[in-house]
Amino acid sequence: MGREVELKLSIDRKDVAHLRNHPAVISSRVGKSATHKLISIYYDTPDLKLLDAGISLRIRHISGRWIQTIKSTGSSLTGLHQRKEWEDVIAANHLDYTKILNPDLIKIFANQKFRDALRPIFQTEVRRSEWQLAFDNGDKIELALDLGQLVVDKKSESICEIELELKAGNAGRLFDFALELQRVIPLTLENTSKAQRGYAYFRTEPPVIFKAQLPKLVNNADASSAFKKIAWECINQLQRNEDMVLRGADVEGVHQMRIALRRLRS
């Protein structure tokens, strides 16, 4: 099992060339870039039992191989996605339950009736360009540019996003590097994974107002740790109201974003 830490960013297609030639990419890259075609097929039951369990299950074809991946829902804030991940090479384009070794996952997938109910529900088809980046302090990042589409039944939507995955070092490097890119290229933090975008076609949830929450502080927390939790909660409130504002659904969303900024500044 691994722990995936990555920062997702949306990019406009017209800015892709600027990304490839960005000074921060050129100065940090190690070796040549690699390009792959990725086809990812996501599975669930008709009533979405895996989604309800906080699990995503997919098989992916890349470079002549099939890879089976199971991810926990994890957390997503300010575009930073942190999840547990189990990844295995499989022999063909169908699920291989013998690769599942985690005791909790074994319990979920042991039921034959449940296995029989699993079916492909959507897929993504992207061309991924990858750069390996290294920095003087030992931090390492994999930069991936995904261009393609999400396909659900007869519907499709465009995919154009950047993923910065931490390979070694501190997660703060992901944000530092993203800010370097942002100086030249307009980018947007992306809190929604490809799996979440696919599932949205099955369960459409209207945006809701998100009010301030009390951060969970422990009694013996030092000032630095407490500040981080408080700041993250303010940012969470800010971002959770973004969709409401963009859709113009309720002016209360703007008010709550103003509250979040005021809390953060104080």
How does this structure look, described?
This protein has two domains: 2-199, Beta Barrel (Hypothetical Protein Pfu-838710-001); 223-265. The chain has 266 residues and is of the alpha+beta class. The longest helix is centred in the last third of the chain and has 18 residues, at 223-240. Helix content is 31%, strand content 36%. α8 packs antiparallel against α10 (252-265). The protein has an eight-stranded antiparallel barrel. The chain has ten helices and ten strands.
CATH superfamily label of the largest domain: Hypothetical Protein Pfu-838710-001
> In CATH terms, what is the fold-level topology of the largest domain?
Hypothetical Protein Pfu-838710-001
Total strands: 10
Estimate what percentage of residues fall within beta strands.
35-45%
Estimate the global geometry from the Cα principal axes. globular
How many discrete structural domains?
Answer: 2
Helix-strand category: alpha+beta
Indicate the low-confidence ranges by residue numbers: none
**CATH class of the largest domain, please?**
Mainly Beta
Series of H and E elements: EHHEHEEEEHHEEEHEHHHH
Portion in helices = 25-40%
| H/I helix tally | 10
The CATH architecture of the largest domain can be given as: Beta Barrel
Kindly state the mean pLDDT as a whole number? 87
**Rounded to an integer, what's the Rg over CA atoms?**
20 Å
* Spatial strand sequence of the major β-sheet: 1-6-4-3-2-7-8-9
Please give the alpha-carbon distance between the first and last residues.
40 Å
Largest sheet: 8 strands, antiparallel, barrel
